[in-house]
Every structure is written in structure tokens, then in C-alpha cells.
Amino acid sequence: MYQPRAGLCAGAGAAAAAGAGAGELLRPPRAAGTERRRTGRRLACLLAHERTAVAAARRIVDAFLAQADRADLTDSAELVVSELVTNAVVHGRPPVCLTLTWVETAAPRPSALHIDVEDHGSTPDTLGAVPPPDAEHGRGLVLVDAIADRWGVVGDPVTGSHVWAELT
Asked: In angstroms, rounded to a whole number, what is the distance separating the alpha carbons of residues 23 and 2?
């Protein structure tokens, strides 16, 4: 089971206080943000706690997938990231951290894209509940469930919630 790395996005509050403007992408120090691991590449980015962070997250995913020559995942990854970051911004508390990781999988695909969005809010009580037909909101995690190969939530009273999804 995937376990989020504690403290990967530590210092986000300090970065925000250091003067990041509206909608700017906040980047953690290189040592904490980008690293090589035995299971593949990882990229972590702190996002502004604003709705403009959703578009920034999509651009980050596009570049990450282009670098790995995995354009086949672009549409699905953009939708999943849009939903997860939107939920973190609307329902969570700052900071919001997007982490993209290539993880080893079994054949036929050698790796899966693991998307993790962390915020410091509480874990929602109604995960994946289908809203009434006339509701204007509430379908995001239903879409994530339909698109992702696997997804889930890890709640932590100290670091908040990590909502993750994997695409192959």
C-alpha cells in the first residue's frame, strides 16, 4: 500500500509567506522536491491555495508526462489532477502539495503514474458518494474512481489528507 512521505511538503507555509503571488507555483528546495529513487522519478510541487493552482497542476502533469514520453496518459492525468487539486483548494487547508511519481508495476506496462495531492485539511467523510442528480457539485471523486486504476485516501491528524490515484 502506498504511504505518503511525511514532511515532503514541509515548509510550504514559509514559502507562501516568502511572497509567492496569487496562482504562483511554489517550489520546495530541490533536495525535498525532486529526487531519484529506485522506483523511478518523483516530482513534488507546492501549489498556491487558490483555484488557479488547478491549471498550474495540469501544466506540471503535462510536462512530467512529456518528459517520460507518456502522452497516452495526458487526458486521464489532467482530469484526475484537476479534480484532486480542486478538492484540496476548495475543501482543504494550505499548503497543497502535488507529487508525481513513477512506480514499478507488473507487465504489460513497466510503470504507473502515481498522483498524490496533500493538503492540511481533514479527510472527508463522504468519499466517492454519488450526489443527487440535481446537485451542482460532488462528482469529482466519482470521476477519479472511473478513470484511475486505483485510488484512495490516507488521512493523518498531523499532515492532513493525501488523496492519491494511479494510472497505467
From this structure: 29
